[in-house]
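Annotators were shown the component list below and the corresponding predicted structure, then asked to write short factual statements about the assembly.
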Amino acid sequence: MAVVSKTHDEPRAADDDLPLFRRAQTGDFAAFESLVAQLQGRVYGVAYRILGHAQDAEDVVQQTFLSVIEHIDGFRGESAVATWVMRIATNFSLKVLRKKRGLLTVPLDTADESFADVPHPQYIAEWRESAESHLDRAELRELLDRAIAELDDKYRVVFVLRDIDEMTTEETAEALGLSISNVKVRLLRARMQLRERLTRQLGDEATRVEPDHRH
Amino acid sequence: MTCEEMLKALNAVIDDQSALAMCTEFAEHLAGCNPCQLVVDNIRKTIQLYKAGVPYPMPEAFQERFRTALKVRWKQKFPDATV
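Structure shown to annotators:
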């Protein structure tokens, strides 16, 4: 199955990975390995955040770079190398996600959502001086992992690509087959839900204010 | 501007600091609405925490297996290459 997305990005002025990639296209394995070394952490991090499972993330890393080798001749430089690789990684992550959910042939829900349905904030408070001083490193990581794992798949994927991997809204929409407005709504829902959960743990009760949705 | 309208515009406020400068309605609402100020601040901190999250190192055992798989596929793709 072809998993490489066709890109429609504008040509980019500078792509730091392109010289290595061009050498790799000629069969230079050392250049390819250098490229892998630069991008594997990013691929692993995104896959881990989407899937929440180390071994699944390893599978995505391996499948992604094997697919890059397979399609290495087809890259035309229409997007940055890293963007192209991350699209492949996203597609493999979604494929694993569907398999885990028993949805072998059903795509990620792409139905448009409305801003009107976004839940209002309930627990509103300033965070304590430093989240890191309130919780130790392992506790904080567990809190972050649990909160993101509790997001619906369709919101988590958008948050990971937009806010953690820093893809643009347009890149995220293209990678996920969503409309731009749907990416924006889902991103807001993910942000609001994570904010609610983290604030309940990290918020300072003394500064809590009641939400006032009337004005 | 109401809190409801602010909620719909939150992404723009979070993603683009200049949105506040460009839209006086946003700025005026935020200046007078403590709950909305806190929500914006909470979301910014939430994103910062996830971005700064401890990187996830790939396990050593996997690195070795991964490199071997890449070499095998590379030789299939480029039979004359040195790996």
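Statements collected:
1. Chain B has one domain: 3-77.
2. Chain B is about 75% helix and 0% strand.
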